Amino acid sequence: MLVVSGLEKTYPGKDGGFTAVSGMSFEVHEGEIFTLVGPSGAGKTTLLRCIAGLDAPTGGSVTFDGEVVSGPPRDFAVVFQDYARSLMPWMTVAKNVELPLMKKGIDAADRRERITRALQEVGLGDAAEKRPFQLSGGMQQRVAIARAIAYRPKVLIMDEPFASVDAQTRADLEDLLLRVQEETGTTVLFVTHDVDESVYLSNRVAIVSRSPSRVAEIVDIPLPYPRDQIDTKSQPGFAHLRGHVFGRIREMVRDANLTTT
Amino acid sequence: MKTLVAASTTDRGRLAFGTFGAVAAVTAWFLISEHSNNAYFPPLRAILEQAWNYWTTAEGVTNILASLQTLAGGLSLAIVFGVVIGLIIGQLPVVEQTVSPTLEFARAIPATALIPFAMMLFGVSSEMKIFLIALGCVWPVLLSTADGARRVDRTLSDTARAFQVSGTQRQLYVILPAVLPRILVGIRIAIPLSLILMVTSEMVGVQRGLGFVITQAQATFQLLTMWSGILILGILGFTLTFLYTLVERRLLRWSDPRGDRSS
Amino acid sequence: MTTVTAPPRTSKQMVWVTTHRRTLGRYILPTVFILGLIGLQELLTQNGALPATYFPPASEIAAALIQELSAPALGSALSSTLSTWLMAILLSVGLGTIVGVLLGLIVPLEAILRPIIEFLRPVPSVALIPLVVLTIGTGSQSALFLAVFAAFWQVLVPAIIGVRAAHPVALDTARSYSFSLWQRIRWIQLPSMLPYLATAVRLATSTSLILIVTAEIIIQMPGIGYEITMSRSVGNPARMYAYIALSGAAGILLNGLVRRLENKLFATHGLGGTA
Predict the structure, then answer these.
(1) B 175-204 near C (Cβ less than 8 A)
(2) A66 contacts chain C (CB < 8 A)
(3) What distance in Å separates the CA atoms of residue A187 and residue A156, rounded to the nearest whole number?
(4) Dihedral angle computed from the Cα positions of residues C141, C143, C149 and C150, in that order, rounded to the nearest 10 degrees
(5) Strand partners, A28
(6) How large is the ipTM?
(7) How many interface pairs between A and B have CB atoms less than 8 angstroms apart?
């Protein structure tokens, strides 16, 4: 349903510029959680911005339901890593969730209903009238997720959304994402540099090489849903998959270091 | 010394220190000037009496109102034009590049140098005063707004784009509030400037207003009236800045009190 | 949803596009805009859409400007305005900084003086013109006093804030290495103050020019402002516009100078970028 083919992104500069992504191809199936994992500096964010229509690729294409993506598509929602900046500080939590709904031509009553449900879903039912600065980082990211849920997108794009919160909150938010995805069946495209997170959440994991990055391998994660922080992670299958992904990434980093030194 | 320093950092301590300083300054002025024989520096008591006697009469009130009216007109025009043009320039790099040398030049012309020009255009009228105030005060508002609009946080504007928030909605709910702190800084710089331009334009021939009364009083050697006018202007400036601080605080309620507001 | 695919471009083409876009943006567009404005003014005045008595055509203004370049009035007007201006900047920045550092360090004193500062700061200094004329006279000292009175507060208040803006960790470091008071001021508080001071100096530069020109117009003391009013009252609008343009040029020149000094200062103190 979401097809990335031969994607290339080069930033202009001297000596032909800097190529962050080159020849990137993969396909995300409807209703799955698809994760891109790779070492830092692998151009994952660049790739994601191209897919979300925020940046124009310099080559190749992104197609969604058969149409080429050239600007932010109506059916995508994005959750950014920097929750402190993706929320409008001058709006209450409820207004933040409401902002993208106003354009969709949804009447006020329906909007209110969606906001209440989304906030309850993320466990912030009574924080509707608070302002972002009154909430902790984890709660702010919950608001960002609520905003995406209320928008009811076909594809939910998440750029390292849990990278800036503490470990316990991170586990909570991962489980929140799994629960919401199960209820709504939304397709999720997730980016992370955390191997555990990628294996724990996904149906499939794409290992991305260092820049100019491309997909090195796509790994199926046949662990059963619903997943659980303790049960799933103590299964031998999890350990094996985690080890495999980790090994591939380490190889790539080592190879890259060998060629540069 | 240590307790003094500690006391002067709390809110109540500062209030007490400040009150003491203000009372001491006024008392000192009052006592020192009381037996002054220097015609240029009359006793404060006489100035206060004169202020009461003149500025509460119909003539005095008319002059104050005339000044306030031009001030309000000029500042509002400056704010509206400054914000609108600033938002356009700050968001459209092509426009910015095209007009910025011209703007740079226009801004460098000291507003009062345009008094003769304004007089030629509007004659000696309140339109002339409003025009002058607007022309001088538009720059701080415009530049600050443009700068703010240029630096709207990338994640913030990306969020708006990703969720299809565009057009009027984007300007109203995302850009304008994001730039608001910078707009307010620009207006804060414009307020003292507007007072200067108001008084100046009233000095060059308009037959009403605070500046006119002060110059007139000087020409006819009524030094008490002149001093009382200066005093009224001081009070006006102080009140305006104070009220503006309240407005600012109200408008920026949403900002994190722990955060850095100057950035 | 629209459908556009990014055309594959070779990097060579990309570089060409970006460099040429830069030239276009930086030089060609602004030049065309300025020439367009001048042309429009010329057209509107030549065909009488704008009254010629108020708006002489641009060509006439340019002619007046060129003629003025060799006239003796220009040199003396420029030098008297600029020298007063320079003095005003030096005095207001110097005094403002020194008093600002003192008040920034001695908190109780600042708390006592605060209401007086807050009262005097917004007093439009032009209101003092009548008083200044009576006491100081109509010489250039009057203009200097008015300019310094206005600009001083604009430096003082940011200076106080700047001194206090020193990072607590930096101050703790100073304490743990037992810096002397002077060392602390020199190495921690003055650098932390610089960004605040930079903005203040820029404000003070334009404010003092406004006041000097005002004084020249109202008190009629020699300078650019005086030449502007003079030209109007003798019915020579072209010369008036020429002098207005000159005042703008002088403004650009001094702003540039201040900015350059600022950059130098920032560079030597290892603080990147301007505030």
Answers:
(1) 189, 191-193, 195-196, 198-200, 203-204
(2) no
(3) 6
(4) -160
(5) A2
(6) 0.82
(7) 69
**Amino acid (one-letter) located at C223:** G
Q: Do A100 and B258 touch (CB under 8 A)?
A: no
Chain B partners (3+ C-beta pairs within 8 A): A, C
List all chains that touch chain A, counting a touch as 3 or more CB pairs closer than 8 Å.
B, C
Under an 8 A CB cutoff, do A59 and C6 touch? yes
Tell me the CA distances in angstroms from B258 to A45, A133, A134, B180, C68, one per residue in order. Answer: 30, 9, 10, 18, 57
CATH number for the domain whose boundaries are C63-268: 1.10.3720.10
Based on the fold, state whether residues A62 and A120 are members of the same structural domain.
no
Spatial distance between the Cα atoms of C199 and C218, rounded to a whole number of angstroms: 29
- Taking CB atoms and an 8 Å limit, are C210 and B196 in contact across chains? yes
pLDDT digits (tens, 9 = 90+) for B141-200: 999 999 999 988 888 989 998 888 888 889 999 999 999 999 999 999 899 899 999 998
Report the C-alpha gap between C219 and C213 in whole angstroms: 10
Closest by Cβ to C252, choosing from B9, B105, B214: B105
Please give the share of chain C, as a percent, with pLDDT higher than 90.
16
Q: Is the CB of B159 less than 8 angstroms away from the CB of A74?
A: no
Candidate from C1, C6, C14 with C-beta closest to A12 = C14
* Residue A55 to residues A8, A10, A46, B76, B181, Cα–Cα distance (Å): 11, 11, 8, 39, 28
* Residue C61 structure tokens: 């203004």
CA B185 to chain centre: 11
> Which amino acid is present at C186?
R
- Taking alpha carbons only, the member of C52, C163, C39 closest to residue C100 is C163
Any CB–CB contact under 8 A between A61 and chain C?
Answer: yes
Q: Could you tell me the residue ranges of all domains in chain C?
A: 63-268
Q: Report angle CA A63, A67, A72 to the nearest 5 degrees.
A: 75
Instruction: Sheet with A59-64: list strands edge to edge.
Output: A18-28, A2-11, A59-64, A67-68
Give Rg (Cα) of chain B.
23
Q: What is the 3-state secondary structure (H, E, C) of B102-122?
A: HHHHHHHCCHHHHHHHHHHHH
pLDDT digits (tens, 9 = 90+) for A59-71: 889 999 988 988 8
Quick one: A179 and A71 in the same domain?
Answer: yes
CATH of the domain at A29: 3.40.50.300
Q: Domain of A118?
A: 82-152
Q: Are the C-beta atoms of A121 and A186 separated by less than 8 Å?
A: no
Q: How many domains does chain A have?
A: 2
Q: Identify which of A13, A1, A100, A4 has the alpha carbon closest to the alpha carbon of residue A50.
A: A4
What gap in Å lies between CA C103 and CA C105, rounded to an integer? Answer: 5
pLDDT given at position C7 = 45
Sheet containing A33-37: order of strands: A76-79, A155-159, A187-192, A33-37, A204-208, A215-220
The single residue listed with the structure tokens 């255009």 is: B121
CB spacing of A85 vs B156 below 8 angstroms: yes
Residue of A16, A67, A68 with shortest CB distance to C11: A16
